[in-house]
Amino acid sequence: MSEIISIRDLLIRRNGRDALRINSLDIKSGETLAIVGPNGAGKSTLLLALAGLVTPSHGQITFNGKSISQMNDLEYRRKISFVFQDPLLLDLSVENNIALGLKFRSIDKDETRSRVHRWSQALGVDSLLGRRASQLSGGEAQRVSLARAFILEPELLLMDEPFSAVDPPTRAQLLKDLSNLLSGNDRTTIFVTHNLKEAAQVGGRMAVIIDGKLEQVGKPKQIKEKPVNKSVKEFLKVL
Amino acid sequence: MSDIFEITLLSLQVSAIATLISLLIGLPFGTWLALGNFRGRSFLLSIVNTGMALPPVVVGLVVAITLWRSGPLGGLRLIYTPMAIILAQTIISAPVVMGLTAAALAALDPRLQQQLLGLGASHLQMIWMMWREARLPLLAALMAGFGSVISEVGASMMVGGNIRGQTRVLTTAIVLETSKGEFEKALALSALLLTLTYLINLALTLIQQKGHKR
C-alpha cells in the first residue's frame, strides 16, 4: 500500500503557542488510524490541518505525493470528508442533510437519490429521511452526520471524536456499525478518540499525541505493551 | 387626499430603497465581520455597533453640509431631493443591518463554517448556507433596518426640506401639521404611518415564522 498522507517537520502554532509538532508520520492508503491523546493535546488541530482548514506554520503535508498547500483548496477539500464531535446538522430534512455535500459538488438528482438511499440504509436512518434534523435524537443525528460524510465516498475520512456526545449504549452500537462499515471498504480513515478500546476496535494503527507532540505510532497492543516513554505510559494508565 | 397618497407613496419608496441599499451593503460587510479573521475586527465591530445608534439629526446635518451647494458634493444638486433622503436614510440603516447580520452569524456554532468547508462547500456555498441557517435573525435585521428609517424625521427634514409634492414624507408632514396646530391631521397621519409600519412588519413576521416551522 502506498502512502496517501505524509507529514514532515510539521509545526502548527495557534494562539501564540505550539499546538502541534510532528516530525514524521505516514498514513497508508486504505488504513484506519486512530489518534489518541489527552484533551488539548493537538488531535483536533491535526485533523483540521489534514482537512486544509488550518495552515501549518512550518513543514509539509502531502496528499498522494502532492503538497496540499500547493493544491487547489476546493479541489483538495472535495477529496475528503469531515465528521465533528457534534453532528452540526443544518435546519433541513434528514434527506437534504445527507445529500448536502453532493449538492455542493453539483451531483445530478438520480445519482444523489441513489446514494442517499444506499448510505441512509447502511447507517440505519432510511426511515428518518423525511424528518427535520431538529427532530432527531443525539444518536440519530450522529448517524445522519456519518451518512453525510460516507455518501461523499471520500479518499480520506476525518472523524473527530464522533461518538463522545452520545450515551454509552448508542455509542457502543454506533461504534460497532462504524467498524463494520470501515472493514467493508478500503477508505483511508483517521479517527480521533479519547477511548483506547474504541481506538483498538476501529483503528488498525494508533498514534499517541501528548502535549502537542506525536509520541508513538503502532498497533494498539504493541503501544500498550511497550510505551515509548513515561508520558505515553502515564497516559495509557489513566485511560 | 391625493396629497396624502403622494406623501405615503414617497415615504414607502424612499425607505424601501434605503433599506434595500443597506441590505446590499450590510449583508456582505456584516458577514465579513462575523466570519473573517483579521486584525482590527473588534475595532471595526465597535464602530459598526456605534453606527447602529447614530442620531438621525446628526446624519442629516452631515449629509446636508456635504450636499449643500458650497459643500464637497454640492455640484450633484441633490440637496432637497428624494435622493438626499435616501442617502441619509441609508447611512442610518446600513450599520443596523450590518451589526445585526454580524451578530446573527456570530451566534451560529463556530464549527459550522469548518463543517461546511469540510463537506466540500466553496466559500460562497458556505456563506449561503450560513445565511440560510441564520435566516430568522437576518430577517429581523431587515425589519430593524426598515424600522429605523420609516420612522425617522430629523434627517429627512434636514436634507429633504419637507417640500410639498417633492420631498414631503409622512414623518415630516406630521411635524409640519403639529407645528401648525393641526393635531387632528397630525394624528391621522401618525395612524397611517403606524398602520403601514405594522402591515409591513406583519408580512415580514409571517415570512419569518414560516421559516421557523419545524
Describe this structure in words.
The complex is a heterodimer of chains A (239) and B (214). Chain A has 239 residues and is of the alpha/beta class. Helix content of chain A is 37%, strand content 27%. A six-stranded mixed β-sheet of chain A has the order 6-7-8-3-9-10, with helices on both faces. In chain A, strand 4 and strand 5 (66-67) form a beta hairpin. The longest helix of chain A has 16 residues, at 168-183. Chain B has 214 residues and is mainly alpha-helical. In chain B, helix 1 crosses helix 7 (135-150), helix 4 runs antiparallel to helix 7 and helix 4 runs antiparallel to helix 8. Chains A and B meet through strand 6 and helix 4 of A and helix 5 and helix 6 of B.
Write the layout of secondary structure elements.
The complex is a heterodimer of chains A (239) and B (214).
Chain A: E1 3-14, E2 17-28, E3 32-36, H1 43-50, E4 58-63, E5 66-67, H2 73-77, E6 80-83, H3 94-98, H4 100-104, H5 109-122, H6 138-150, E7 156-160, H7 168-183, E8 188-193, H8 196-202, E9 205-210, E10 213-218, H9 220-225, H10 230-238
Parallel strand pairs in A: 3-8, 3-9, 6-7, 7-8
Antiparallel strand pairs in A: 1-2, 1-4, 4-5, 9-10
Chain B: H1 2-35, H2 41-51, H3 56-67, H4 82-106, H5 110-118, H6 123-133, H7 135-150, H8 154-160, H9 170-179, H10 183-212
